[in-house]
Amino acid sequence: MASMNVRGSGMAKSSKLVSMWDSKRSTDQENRPKIPPIPEENGWKTVDHTKPRTAEKSAMRPMDGNRQRPPSAAADSRLKVYETSAKPKSLHKQVMLPPGERDPTVEDIEANKGVVLHKSQFKPGMIIRGKLHEQDYKATSSSSNITIADPYRSDTKFGPICTKYRKMIVIALFEDHYLSVPVFTHNGHGLADKTKREEYIGIKDHRAKEEGLRQSRHEPLVTEFITSGIDLFDPKSTAHVTYALSRKYDLSLILEGHLTKSSTNRLIRVFKQFAPTELKDRNGKLY
């Protein structure tokens, strides 16, 4: 009996302590200062932690690191300039043009960034593609009145400049630069409107099934290798032999392929035919 009294007394004390603790916790919660609710942001809901774990995921507020914020005004402006300067404005018109004459798209710009090759990697007959900057000869004044629909042209304090990605064929190597002749299709018309056709020589893509189109007195050049992913050469493509361009080795480019050795030699021979000659007097003697 004595042991039962002692056990009952212990249980009574324990119940009393629990009751006092519950009363104190309830009083603390009532006296705790009320925290005002956090104002909800547009498009976001405050987490209700009283909901069970099965609550809808849409009600959960993602952590700051995963939030998708709208782009800043500066970023939005840069994006608009990038898109308007790169995307073609008339899809129908662009599709009608040969691939080499179309306005560059965003994908084209990324693909044409190119690489810088070491000087030792250059060889005559190499077919490359790079950016060619020229004075805009079609401009009627010192300003070409640039519009969004004309992404090829840009204004400078010296006048308008026309820039295009242009195929070129290397013909001569020097200490810190090389000579190359540019390739044109003339908007798909070839040499139809040219009077001095002997200054041009056609190019045949070895992958094409058709015979090479002879557009001048010169037999067309023939490619030997073309990098995978490069489009077929337009049948109207011609190398403008007398329009040689000088380029630095450290300019970025895309290596598209190379001509056969015999075609390379023929191109160089044709170029030499138009090389400048020494001045002579009326009797044919050198000064």
Would you mind describing this structure in some detail?
The structure is a single chain. The protein is an alpha+beta fold and 287 residues long. It has helices at 2-31, 73-86, 91-96, 106-111, 261-273, and strands at residues 126-135, 153-156, 159-173, 177-184, 200-204, 221-226, 238-240, 245-248, 254-259. The protein is 24% helix and 21% strand. Strands 1-3-4-7-5-6-9 form a seven-stranded mixed beta barrel. The model is unreliable at 55-66 and 81-91 (pLDDT under 50).
Features:
5 helices, alpha+beta, about 290 residues, about 25% helix, single chain, 7-stranded mixed barrel, elongated, 9 strands
Order of strands across the main sheet: 1-3-4-7-5-6-9
Query: What is the helix fraction of residues, given as a range?
Result: 10-25%
Number of DSSP helical runs: 5
Number of strands: 9
> Radius of gyration, rounded?
38 Å
| Average predicted confidence as pLDDT | 75
The stretches of 5 or more residues where confidence is low (pLDDT under 50) are 55-66, 81-91
Strand content: 15-25%
Main beta sheet: strand number and arrangement? 7 strands, mixed, barrel
Distance between the termini: 145 Å
Structural class: alpha+beta
Please write the string of helix (H) and strand (E) elements. Answer: HHHHEEEEEEEEEH
